[in-house]
Structures are given as C-alpha cells and as structure tokens.
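Thought: the user wants the 3D structure for the chain below. I'll pass the sequence to the structure tool as-is, report back what it returns, then summarize two notable features.
Action: structure_tool
Action Input:
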Amino acid sequence: LLSNNKTNYRGVTKNKNGKYKSTIVVNGKTIHLGYFKNIEEAAETYNKAAIKYFGEHAYQNQTHNNRKRGG
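Observation:
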C-alpha cells in the first residue's frame, strides 16, 4: 500500500467531490474502473479486476464482504 493512500485500499482514491475512484495498473498502464459512492464498492471492483488481470492469487483488498466469505 502506498504511503500516500488515505483510503487504506489498494487502487482506491477519494475525489474532492466525495466519490471514490477505482483504478488498477496493468503492464504500466492505468485502467479506470469507475467512480463509486461507497468505498467498499470501489475496493470490490479493484478486487475483481485484480483477479481478472493477475489471477486468483492477486493481491486483494480486505473488505467487509470478503471477510464474511473468509477471504
């Protein structure tokens, strides 16, 4: 996790308008995943993209939803 990431979620930043932006970097290119009102939705979207691009062992954010599933 980057030291300047204030959301504590990989790939998630908060905009000035209060929405959360989810992005992932693949092969040196940043892919915009969307804007979300909820930080957990943004983190889950990053998780899905991480699995898609890097496989099932990719780093994933620990969100409320995947803690309940045992992830």
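Final Answer: Structure generated. The longest strand covers residues 29-36. Strands lie at 12-14, 20-26, 29-36.
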